[in-house]
């Protein structure tokens, strides 16, 4: 199906289902898809959507960006598995119902106290009416957070070389103080 045909079919579906939708009152998008975000640690933001019963969000329509501060970088978002829906217009699509939590790795300049998150999404009602794509903006405080064990540099898949050996890990000093031998890695 061509890209130009999909919007036309979507508009026809809205017209087709509009009689059914008139018998049910649709929720305001802010109530159907409650958006929030919080910092889990200095390098991870969790984006949450609480999705009302009878509504869903499309995974492919999430657009996540950082607006500020300058120099802030966003890593690849980590989405949980969704549900597959057979859409009469778009075919098989991945959707979220009830709630979705998306983890965003971030790299911030040293003096950053907050970030501006721009989150785009699109959702629909089970009665066949879809909302226009939306973009929401939220400031997320990044201060007063402790690094979680999963955010420590030596636990990341691409750890810097200075953390690649047990003797160079900060935990090695603790083991020496406890008079325990450092962990050995298989060679």
Précis, in short:
The chain has 187 residues and is an alpha+beta fold.
> Radius of gyration, Cα only, in angstroms?
22 Å
Shape verdict: elongated
Calculate the terminal CA-CA distance, rounded to whole Å: 53 Å
Decide which structural class fits the backbone.
alpha+beta
Uncertain parts: 4-23, 149-187
The number of helical segments is 3
CATH fold descriptor of the largest domain? Immunoglobulin-like
- Spatial order of the strands in the main sheet? 1-2-8-5
- How does CATH name the architecture of the largest domain? Sandwich
CATH superfamily of the largest domain: Thiol:disulfide interchange protein DsbD, N-terminal domain
**Could you estimate the helical fraction of the residues in percent?**
10-25%
Summed over residues and divided by their number, the pLDDT gives a mean of: 75
Query: What sequence of helices (H) and strands (E) makes up the elements?
Result: HHEEEEEEEEEEEH
The beta-strand count equals 11
Strand content: 35-45%
Structurally, the number of domains stands at: 2
What does this structure look like?
This protein folds into two domains: 5-141, Immunoglobulin-like (Sandwich), CATH 2.60.40; 152-187, no CATH class. It is 16% helix and 36% strand. It has three helices and eleven strands; from the N terminus they run ααβββββββββββα. It has helices spanning 5-22, 29-32, 171-177; strands spanning 33-41, 44-51, 55-58, 63-68, 73-74, 83-87, 91-96, 99-107, 114-121, 123-125, 134-141. β1 (33-41) and β2 form a beta hairpin. The longest helix has 18 residues, at 5-22.
